[in-house]
Amino acid sequence: MDQRKNESIVPSITQLEDFLTEHNSNVVWLLVATILSCGWIIYLTYYNSRNVGLILTLVLNRLYKHGYIHIGSFSFSVLSGKVMVREIYYITEDMSIRIQDGFIIFRWWKMYNPKQKQHDPKAETRLYITVNDFEFHVYNRSDLYGRLQELFGLEPTIIPPKKEDDKTRENGRTRTQSKIERVKVKTESQDPTSSWRSLIPVIKVNVSTGRLAFGNHYQPQTLCINFDDAFLTYTTKPPSSHLDQFMHIVKGKLENVRVMLVPSPRYVGLQNDEPPRLMGEGFVVMQSNDVDIYYYMDEPGISFLKCHIYWFLCFFFCI
Fold it and tell me: What is this structure's pTM?
């Protein structure tokens, strides 16, 4: 009886062949292929990017120990050179960065000219970044407070000391000297055409709905900078001094900018100085429809670093 039941439940290969022959096997295989194709398309459309984001989140948090990184979904297209992400979180003990969604387009099909100037602000854009719902929040400065505790000889209560940090402090001078030598060798032997700035001379960034916040629940007010749209362009130029490497330049325009003092939601202390008036979320310090940004900074060279180190050592030994 058991053998008959097993034979009736699990068909053999010959029985399957006879069944397919009797019921037109082409139609059956077409139906199976259609169902599998629909399932695969649904998976690629709705679930593949989320699974890739979950895997990247686990790998990055396993490798990076100084914060938490979360990637909701991740997908890319080689043909269009586009990388799309969603729900990006980067949280540390001092700050947090949150991005709802965005994408990066690298225009690899543009011809690369090795004779192109390395610092050409009018060059074509190969890298284009778009971000939606950007939020940057600074709520602590634990490194600075930890250094103050160390200078005053207090016990470290903000960040517990680690063995790796102690070893780094002991070998700090040796590592600094070795880094200077490596930078010197790299600077002397670097070819201008091999730099990433010759491949990507200009980077354009568009941000839709951004917010910058500075404060925490120990302060009665939090400084918030809100804007609707931001159009930024990053490029490099030759430095203003021959001792420097190059100059960073960021130009941009912000729309509907508001600088406000917002009451901290979890503040439980006494508030002595209340703002004169509240408009919406908080007290508006500054408001403008259009704000132009022009920021530039020189990248210091090895000679500049050596000069500062030399004067520091002279001052130290004189004391």
Answer: 0.70
CA distance 88 to 65: 17
pLDDT tens across 68-127, in order?
A: 999 999 998 888 889 999 999 999 988 999 999 999 999 888 776 666 655 555 667 889
Which position has the higher pLDDT, 143 or 251? 251
Coil/strand/helix, residue 243: coil
- Integer distance in angstroms from the first to the last C-alpha of the chain? 101
Candidates 98, 96, 134; CA nearest to 216 is 96
Count of CA atoms in the C-beta half-sphere (13 A) of 174:
5
Burial of 225 (C-beta count, 10 Å sphere; 0-12/13-18/19+): middle
Residue with the larger pLDDT of the pair 296 and 9: 296
**Phi and psi, residue 48, nearest 5°:** -65, -45
Locate tokens 């008959």: which residue?
Answer: 4
Q: Please report where in the chains the tokens 């940004």 appear, as a residue.
A: 293
The predicted-structure confidence for 264-315, as pLDDT tens digits, reads as follows 887 777 766 666 666 667 788 888 999 998 998 888 876 544 444 444 444 4
d(C-alpha 54, C-alpha 59), whole Å: 9
List Cα–Cα distances, 114 to 162, 239, 314, in angstroms: 47, 21, 44
Please, what's the largest Cα pairwise distance for the chain?
Answer: 102
Question: What token pair was written down for 4?
Answer: 């008959």
Give the DSSP letter string of 51-103. Answer: HHHHHHHHHHHHH--SSEEEEEEEEEETTTTEEEEEEEEEE-SSEEEEEEEEE
DSSP-assigned letter for residue 118 = T
Q: How far, CA to CA in Å, does 290 sit from each of 99, 230, 252, 262?
A: 23, 10, 10, 22
Query: Distance of CA 231 to CAs 208, 215, 255, Å?
Result: 9, 26, 9
DSSP state of 269: S
